[in-house]
Design brief:
By secondary structure, the chain is of the alpha/beta class. About 40% of the residues lie in helices and about 20% in strands. The strands form three sheets. The protein has a five-stranded parallel β-sheet, with helices on both faces. Strands 9-10-8-11 form a four-stranded parallel β-sheet, covered by helices on one side. It has a two-stranded antiparallel sheet with strand order 1-2. Strand 4, helix 3 and strand 5 form a beta-alpha-beta unit. Helix 2 packs across helix 8 and helix 10 crosses helix 11.
Length: about 325
């Protein structure tokens, strides 16, 4: 998801280099004035709208790639040149090309030829999906297809397939996301681009209220309703789990501290397994009745424990303030 380019000149240390300077005068003067710099690795992400381009791009960004979304194809060689001048600070570039920039899309073939002439190592990742899956995704978010116009979603999909047919044929990697969820797509991208690096685990700890429904993106759910509810304590009712008065009340209840300790130990075991499987993100949903007191207090303590274990952690209080 390409003809093999001629091998670039290499220094004794094996690093590929490209000339990024310009000069005038005799060839000897030009050679003396030429500045060499390491050529960044390039990945071009394209494919069908709704097939997961944004997820693929985010995955590469998390792996340390410099990602540019919806860059006009004519500017791709310029971006690579700027990366080459960065003294190694931009060693890997990912560019998302899609039909939002269709007025520039015809320039892609010319840009690819330019990159080959400059000996740039580049790969094309094409995200594919079935018509049925794409229709469901567009209908679920209630958005029109970018090429739909006054027609139906399927008309836009057909037009896009026709536009991207040649690019799909040139792709180095084609990923069909018809039956993949976000985590499975990330796993496929990690398998291709993570190399031997051990993926870092990032956690979102989300408090919620059961009366507002379970979070649909939760990987693990913790139920704090076994603890007495501060809502029924008049002086605590106006506060939230972020207040020391509420947090102190919650963790002075029998079983609260023990639950935090043991669940933290369980998460350490789960986190080690996630890392072995290449899973990079986990959402831990912590619930109580209204999502205001117990779940908020427990989420804050749990997030602090995870952070102390080296897990990058974000806390979200989904339902706090809804009452």
């Amino acid at each position: 998801m390409n003809d093999q380019p001629q091998q670039p000149d290499r220094r004794e240390d094996g690093a590929a280099h490209v000339s990024t300077g310009s000069s005038t005068g005799t060839p000897a003067e030009a050679a003396a004035a030429t500045e060499t710099a390491a050529i960044p690795e390039l990945v071009i992400i394209s494919g069908m709208s709704g097939a997961g381009r944004s997820t693929a791009a985010k995955c590469l960004e998390d792996l340390g790639w410099f990602v540019v979304d919806n860059l006009p194809p004519a500017l791709i060689p310029t971006m690579v040149e700027l990366g080459a001048r960065s003294q190694g600070n931009v060693a890997r570039i990912a560019v998302v090309v899609d039909v939002r920039g269709r007025q520039f899309f015809d320039n892609l073939r010319e840009s690819l030829a330019d990159l080959d002439a400059k000996h740039v190592t580049r790969r094309i990742v094409f995200l594919e999906s079935s018509d049925d899956a794409l229709v469901r995704r567009f209908e679920s978010v209630r958005r029109p297809h970018p090429l739909q116009g006054d027609g139906r979603i399927v008309d836009g999909i057909a037009a896009e397939r026709d536009l991207l047919r040649e690019l799909r044929g040139d792709a180095d990697l084609v990923i069909d996301t018809s039956s993949l969820n976000v985590h499975e797509l990330r796993a496929k991208m990690d398998a291709q681009f993570a190399g031997d690096e051990e993926p870092e685990l990032r956690a979102t700890v989300m408090s919620f209220g059961y009366k507002y429904g379970l979070p649909v993106d939760a990987d693990l759910v913790v139920d704090c309703r076994f603890l007495p509810n501060p809502h029924w304590v008049p002086e605590l009712r106006p506060f939230t789990g972020l207040h020391d008065e509420v947090s102190g009340y919650v963790f002075n209840q029998p079983g609260a501290k023990e639950f935090l300790d043991r669940y933290t130990e369980l998460l350490q075991l789960i986190a080690a397994g996630y890392r072995r499987e290449g899973k990079r993100y986990v959402t831990i949903a912590v619930g109580c009745t209204g999502g205001k007191h117990r779940s908020v207090a427990m989420s804050e303590k749990l997030a602090a424990r995870l952070a102390s274990e080296g897990v990058e952690t974000v806390v979200v209080h989904r339902d706090m303030g809804r009452e």
